[in-house]
Design goal:
Layout (H helix, E strand, L loop, with lengths): L1 E7 L2 H11 L3 E5 L6 E8 L2 E8 L2 E6 L5 E13 L6 E3 L4 E3 L7 E15 L2 H6 L20 H18 L9 H16 L3 H4 L4 H5 L3 H14 L6 H8 L3 H11 L4 H19 L7 H7 L5 H12 L3 H6 L3
């Protein structure tokens, strides 16, 4: 994980930093109070920034080429792109702009979180395939409803507070968290994926052989940063067909099965590890579980004891 800090009272220096950290832009503000503070945590292409501006600042920016989400904690942000005047306040999470579009706006004594990831992740986690009418894209800036807004904001807070600032950001943790964020963004915001109705072949392909191929791929590759798209490709069907196959012939989902396999592998690691040199947190992170408390709860439901007990027991 990389951490970068910025603190300046100069508009010129702030503009230079923002242009380097995000995209070329022009900013303006009141010269009597131009304090800006930014803390960036990033790993594996996932970026989470904490920003605080003690003044009103306008901005005119070029495309980001990233999916960029903002969660407002204090103050307001105003999107003025293409003549709009959309105001966002504390508790709201929204998409800044499509990755390939410039954007303009104004922030007013605001404290907020910016989260960015590669747009290609949307394609990887979407349940669409070769029959889709076009690339997977987010088509709206506001979440579909208050529940979706809360879910998206909570996911970002988890990444900020537990993943990119946690004790372990290696292994599968960041890759798994980034895919999860992309999936939540797709479900929370309007997108072309939600408009896709699938194809008749998806249902025909959802047979037991598809399930067998998908499970075999998961078993062989659970230690890698794989997702729904990878599983579908290995089964020679679309992501939606894989989902249908699991729904018809199994009691879980493709990603649910992946989590189960990883939990089993973590169990084996706990049984064979040296408690003097290993930890539950490290083993959980190695198998893609960034939140040790949630990992422990899932582990106890399955094995009847805490992972710490397994680690300490001599088998």
């Amino acid at each position: 994980m990389e951490t970068e800090r910025f603190d300046s009272g100069s508009l010129e220096v702030t503009e230079e930093f923002l242009s380097r950290a995000y995209t070329p832009m022009r900013i303006g503000g009141r010269p009597e109070n131009t304090q800006a503070r930014i803390v960036r945590n990033s790993a594996e292409g996932l970026v989470v920034d904490r920003l605080a501006f003690g003044y009103t600042m306008s901005y005119d920016a070029e495309p980001l080429d990233k999916v960029c989400l903002i969660t407002v904690h204090k103050g307001t942000l105003v999107d003025t792109t293409d003549g709009r005047h959309d105001v966002y306040g504390p508790g709201e999470t929204y998409l800044v702009a499509p990755p390939d579009r410039p954007y303009t706006g104004e922030l007013r004594s605001a404290r907020y979180t910016i989260t960015m990831f590669d747009p290609a992740l949307l394609e990887e986690v979407a349940a669409v395939g070769a029959h889709a009418r076009g690339p997977v894209q987010l088509t709206g800036q506001r979440p579909l409803d208050t529940t979706a807004n809360k879910r998206l904001g909570s996911t970002i807070a988890f990444l900020r507070d537990h993943v990119l600032t946690g004790p372990a950001t290696d292994g599968l943790v960041v890759a798994t968290a980034a895919r999860h964020l992309a999936a939540v963004a797709l479900s929370a915001l309007p997108s072309t994926a939600t408009q896709d109705e699938g194809h008749p072949t998806d249902s025909r392909d959802a047979h037991a052989d598809t399930l067998r191929r998908a499970k075999a791929y998961i078993e062989e590759n659970a230690h890698k940063a794989i997702g729904l798209g990878d599983i579908a490709a290995a089964a020679f069907v679309t992501p939606r067909a894989v989902q249908y196959a699991f729904s018809r012939h199994s009691d879980t989902t493709p990603l649910g099965h992946l989590r189960q396999v990883r939990l089993t592998r973590a169990h084996v690691a706990l049984r064979t590890a040296d408690p003097q040199t290993s930890s539950v947190t490290r083993i959980a992170a190695t198998w893609g579980f960034p939140h040790v408390g949630r990992f422990a709860a899932a582990y106890r439901r399955l094995y009847g004891v805490t992972p710490a007990v397994t680690l300490r027991t001599r088998w």
